[in-house]
Amino acid sequence: MDLDLKGRRALVTGSSSGIGEAIVRMLAQEGAQVVVHGRNRERAEAVAKAIGAAGVAIGELAEDGGAQAVHAEAVAALGGNVEILINNAGGNSEGNSAKKPHEIDAADFLSNYKANTLGAVQLCQLCIPDMIGAKFGRIVNVSSAVAMQPNNVGADYSAAKAALNNYTVSLAGSLRNVGVTANILTPGIIMVDGLMRFGREKFGNPDASFEEICEKFGEAKVFDIPPVGRVGKPEELAMVACMLASPRSGFITGANYRVDGGQSRGLN
């Protein structure tokens, strides 16, 4: 199926590795003009060169003025306004994934909010006026399963992602009859490069395949394996992101697409 993405201008944040890289690669394969964003210019430029991207935008979105700088660099590289914005950048504050809620201080909550919510919000604010003017825009905010089903640790990250979810739904409801949609993409456990390296090191097999690592994770009960019997692949997230970015998805907005192998079944 042709997603009608050829020539569409897209910015994917956090796209120099992992899920973001898979998304920007697939958008490029579909013919979109893409900008690769990251904090490391060398790594971002390597991805951009490999996929024939329009350019790169380098910057820390959690810092004051970071979103404005990234947006300006993206618009310059694309030669026009951003039509597709996929907010994938974020992550947990180092060391907080093991802390209980009452052990996390206010500074860490604020840091996680800036990294996972505020940067995305600011980019939406920067991109939406041009999207409305063009009567077309697609916003996809990448969330996390813990936004809906938080763990007993890492509450600052869970709260930040929950805030992003709520913002996206409010945004979708406010963008009435202007051709702009806003949706949430929620990954489950995804076999990004870091998780693959962890599995190979943990089980002492540097050449282990994806299937072998999934099997070992299940046997060792490292985490709960989803009902489909394995963890996800970055390209499976990318497929859904491209669908939501497509002009053909104009009747989808305010939705949460959970790509998690059934792990969050039963959640609304």
From TrEMBL:
InterPro entries in UniProt: NAD(P)-bd_dom_sf (IPR036291), Sc_DH/Rdtase_CS (IPR020904), SDR (IPR050259), SDR_fam (IPR002347)
Domain of life (superkingdom): Bacteria
GO BP: monocarboxylic acid metabolic process
PROSITE patterns: ADH_SHORT
Similarity comment: family membership: Belongs to the short-chain dehydrogenases/reductases (SDR) family.
Name of the protein in its database record: NAD(P)-dependent dehydrogenase (Short-subunit alcohol dehydrogenase family)
